[in-house]
């Protein structure tokens, strides 16, 4: 059967196989997408990042972010959250903090759940200076990431915060 897939269908297939944990199939559809002249978007890249991190392939996930940047797509909060969450899931909290620092430098803020998970992991790892810096930054923005009442995604853009 010869199907002409568009970006939406490729994204759905890539995300589907990522969710199932089939990294090879995920990568296969990603490469097929490119070979057929369909440019990957942020959703495809984020799914690939998740797939690689599930397999503990840290360098490959970073390479995907680099490919994303090289293609002209700028990582936004969702991409950084994907990296940070994936690194937290495999207990690489210090690496997650490095991505968090880049995220903040680019004026984005993590989702509450991801930030809470990173803070908790850093605290458990004894990285108290990082916890203090991160907590101070959140307090300046008027946020308490350990409050269970905060469930909104928080984005920063040029110094302004928009709550969604």
Automatic annotation (TrEMBL):
PPR repeat start-end pairs: 6-40, 41-75
Family of the protein in this entry: Belongs to the PPR family. P subfamily.
Annotated organism of origin: Helianthus annuus (Common sunflower)
Protein's UniProt keywords contain Repeat: yes
Keywords carried by this UniProt record: Repeat
Alphabetized PANTHER family for the sequence: PENTATRICOPEPTIDE REPEAT-CONTAINING PROTEIN 3, MITOCHONDRIAL
Name of the protein: Putative pentatricopeptide repeat protein
Pfam families: PPR (PF01535), PPR_2 (PF13041)
Lineage, opening ranks: Eukaryota, Viridiplantae, Streptophyta, Embryophyta, Tracheophyta
KW Repeat (keyword) present: yes
Gene3D superfamilies: Tetratricopeptide repeat domain
Domain of life of the organism encoding this protein: Eukaryota
PROSITE patterns listed in its UniProt record: PPR
């Amino acid at each position: 059967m010869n199907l002409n897939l568009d970006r939406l269908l490729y994204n759905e297939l890539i995300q589907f196989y990522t969710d199932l944990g089939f990294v090879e199939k995920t990568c296969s559809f990603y490469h097929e997408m490119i070979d057929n002249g369909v440019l990957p978007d942020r959703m495809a890249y984020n799914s690939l990042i998740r797939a690689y991190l599930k397999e503990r392939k840290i360098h490959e996930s970073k390479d995907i972010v680099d490919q994303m940047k090289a293609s002209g797509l700028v990582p936004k909060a969702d991409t950084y959250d994907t990296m940070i969450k994936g690194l937290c899931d495999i207990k690489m909290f210090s690496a997650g903090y490095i991505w968090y620092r880049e995220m903040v430098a680019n004026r984005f803020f993590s989702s509450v759940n991801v930030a809470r998970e990173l803070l908790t992991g850093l605290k458990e790892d004894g990285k108290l200076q990082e916890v203090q810096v991160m907590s101070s930054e959140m307090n300046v923005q008027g946020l308490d990431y350990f409050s269970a009442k905060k469930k909104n995604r928080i984005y920063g853009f040029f110094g302004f915060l928009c709550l969604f």
